[in-house]
């Protein structure tokens, strides 16, 4: 039997496709597009920061990066995590000075009819974890007192009070704050229960009122992210606890990859692996499918953004397929977004008997309207609401202005392909 010779392995950085934990990305020596310069800008902004981007756009990894940077428990790991990045050489005054409280509403179990129980159960777990890892910085009776509180709202108030006793500040991160909104966006019959949670004495609204009340005291900073601005407007009467930076030009490139960043990534892997195509050839393939996102009107025609998950997926597939260009483009729309898009198509049909806003974009190449930065759920069945939500989902992007209107276009070929599929499903005769 012939001896099998072990092939010489080529060292390369891991591709962090699907990874959301910044510490893992750095410790496993993954390729990381350095977004830490934005820390300086965030720190100079409103202390209550609201930021939305489409799904699969790197929001969770960005939050994880910020959490590791500001966590008082991670002081000893600062050099290993950030030493080779921009912020490692240019640290800010608030580095490693907060107790980090992370809430991911996507993990909350429960529909609109029992959301209170689901939120209480999830927060109880997160709050107890917080009390455990920061026990050395909190009063000794914190854990006992926490478990005597009857619900998440009281627990949050209690933790803030305990932090005040020792002069500690909390940095609250809320990821996918609008997760439960998907139910009303995809299924109109849930509208009543949605309003019960987000208006008047609704529990979720009360929860955000508690955050507002604690802001400025022990709750030092808040960073809220998600996909849609719909929920925040309903929860806070126009988001009056912070600033929406989603459309701000200074944060246009905070998540996602610029073409220069994609080129640098391709150049790195081409330098250590036997690529069969040049960087220019690969960009030529990737650009029409995964590029063209723009989130600030003033940046139109200057800088466009690649979907980062799809760019990483493309490079990974290219390497795994022995440096052959993948024949099938990556999916950019999640299953949840498919349902939402189909509902928006149904709404759009209400405004025209034989065509819709979405059909117009597909056939004419553009549509004109007003981009709404924050709007209530009742506005999603209006032409501007539909266009704005499609923009939030990444289905359309802004392509400049015409007179006083915003010009909306289909973002890229990957989106076009999936939008066409959804149109056929909705409009096909039964």
Number of strands: 10
- Helix/strand class: alpha/beta
Shape field: globular
Report how far the terminal alpha carbons are from each other: 63 Å
For the record, the count of structural domains works out to: 3
**Biggest sheet layout:** 5 strands, parallel
Radius of gyration (CA) equals 23 Å
Describe the model.
By secondary structure, the chain is of the alpha/beta class. It has helices spanning 22-27, 38-43, 59-70, 78-82, 86-89, 115-133, 142-146, 152-166, 182-186, 191-198, 203-214, 230-236, 259-272, 279-290, 308-320, 335-349, 357-364, 383-393, 413-427, and strands at 48-52, 99-104, 170-175, 219-226, 243-244, 257-258, 305-306, 367-369, 396-402, 405-410. It has a five-stranded parallel β-sheet with strand order 2-3-4-1-5. β9 (396-402) and β10 form a beta hairpin. α13 crosses α14, α16 packs antiparallel against α18 and α16 crosses α19. The model has no long low-confidence stretch (mean pLDDT 87).
Salient structural properties:
single chain; 430 residues; alpha/beta; three-stranded antiparallel beta sheet; 45% helix; globular
């Amino acid at each position: 039997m012939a001896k099998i010779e072990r092939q010489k392995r080529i060292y390369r950085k891991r591709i962090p496709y699907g990874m959301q934990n910044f510490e893992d990305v750095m410790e496993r020596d993954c390729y990381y597009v350095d977004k830490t310069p934005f820390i300086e800008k965030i720190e100079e902004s409103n202390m209550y920061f609201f930021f939305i981007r489409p799904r699969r756009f790197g929001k969770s990894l960005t939050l994880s990066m910020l959490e590791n940077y500001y966590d008082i428990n991670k002081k000893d790991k600062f050099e290993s995590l950030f030493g080779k990045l921009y912020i490692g050489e240019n640290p800010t005054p608030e580095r490693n000075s907060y107790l980090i409280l992370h809430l991911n509403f996507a993990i909350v179990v429960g529909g609109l009819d029992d959301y209170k129980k689901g939120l209480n159960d999830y927060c109880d777990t997160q709050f107890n974890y917080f009390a455990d890892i920061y026990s050395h910085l909190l009063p000794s009776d914190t854990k006992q007192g926490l478990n005597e509180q009857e619900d998440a709202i009281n627990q949050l108030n209690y933790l803030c009070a305990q932090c005040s006793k020792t002069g500690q500040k909390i940095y609250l991160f809320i990821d996918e704050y609008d997760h439960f909104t998907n139910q009303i966006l995809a299924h109109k019959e849930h509208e009543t229960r949605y309003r019960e949670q987000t208006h008047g004495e609704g529990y979720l609204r009360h929860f955000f009122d508690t955050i507002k009340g604690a802001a400025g005291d022990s709750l030092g900073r808040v960073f809220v992210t998600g996909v849609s601005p719909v929920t925040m407007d309903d929860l806070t009467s126009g988001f009056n606890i912070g600033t929406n930076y989603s459309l701000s030009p200074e944060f246009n490139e905070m998540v996602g990859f610029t073409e220069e960043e994609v080129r640098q990534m391709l150049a790195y892997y081409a330098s250590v692996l036997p690529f069969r195509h040049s960087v220019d050839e690969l960009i030529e393939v990737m650009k029409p499918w995964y590029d063209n996102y723009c989130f600030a009107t003033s940046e139109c025609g200057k800088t466009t953004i690649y979907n980062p998950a799809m760019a990483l997926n493309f490079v990974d597939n290219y390497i795994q397929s022995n440096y052959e260009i993948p024949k099938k483009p990556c999916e950019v729309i999640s299953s949840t977004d498919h349902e939402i898009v189909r509902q928006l198509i149904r709404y759009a049909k209400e405004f025209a008997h034989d065509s819709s806003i979405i059909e117009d974009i597909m056939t004419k190449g553009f549509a004109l309207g007003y981009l709404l930065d924050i709007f209530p759920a009742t506005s999603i069945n209006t032409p501007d609401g539909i266009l704005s939500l499609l923009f939030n989902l990444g289905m359309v992007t802004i392509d400049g202005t015409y007179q006083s209107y915003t010009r909306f276009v289909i973002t890229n070929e990957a989106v076009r392909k999936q939008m066409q599929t959804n149109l056929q499903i909705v409009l096909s005769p039964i």
